[in-house]
Specification:
Elements (H helix, E strand, L loop, with lengths): L1 H7 L14 H25 L4 H30 L17 H10 L2 H21 L5 H4 L7 H22 L10 H21 L16 H6 L6 H35 L1
Length: 264
Amino acid sequence: MEAIKEFFGVGGYRRTPEGFLSWQHILFVTCFIALMIALAIVIGLRNRRRNEHTKNKVVAWSAVILLVLKVSEMVVCCLREHSFHPLLHLLPLFLCSIMMIALPLAAFSRGRLKEASLDFVFIFGILAAVMGTYGAGQNFACYPILSFDNVLSVITHALSGFASLYIAISGMTSMRTKNIWITFVILLGFCVAAYIADILIPYNYMFLMRGDGTPYDIFYNLVNGNRVLYPMIVVLLFLLYLSCFYWVYYLVRKRKAKKSSAAS
């Protein structure tokens, strides 16, 4: 019973955290990332030539599992604190937790919204997986490796990465130029919502207020924590990443098309 209480952090964790970027942290997240990549490759290749309904089942199950895990986190945190206050800090307004909205949209919506959502998960899912595991200084510096907070966080981030790779490998991406504006609107909409929540709660969604031990600290320190410049830099980084992703994708696709035409 004591071991269970310690795993869930009831009354606070008594173990000393192994530390951000410790060998335990790197080994732990690498195991999950390796499993994520392997499953995405195997299942993606198996479904690549199957119909869209079959392909979509994996995305749908990923969305459902992600939502179940998020609800479980909310329940445990509320029970642990004997309060509903933790819910204010568990809203899906981090870059990684955007998947809790984008992934269900990708699985259950239709038309251009579905296409844009699939592209959004494809573009940001792998980034969320890497940043939320290897770059999660706010978690691994505070909690022991084998704790509810870290285990659940790594699983949910790895699941986002799995969905991203699966969508790409199974051929579900469209990356149509006419849908690019929808992807940008989704991202900017979340940034605005996160900033408003940060001001009202207050909190640090999307790390728009401070770096909290993540690589964003580099930019936070660069501008001495300026409350205008720092969030602008973070949002610009998101937009820059999105723009670069599209640019590289179209560049690679164009080169492949040239090779195919030259070979024929």
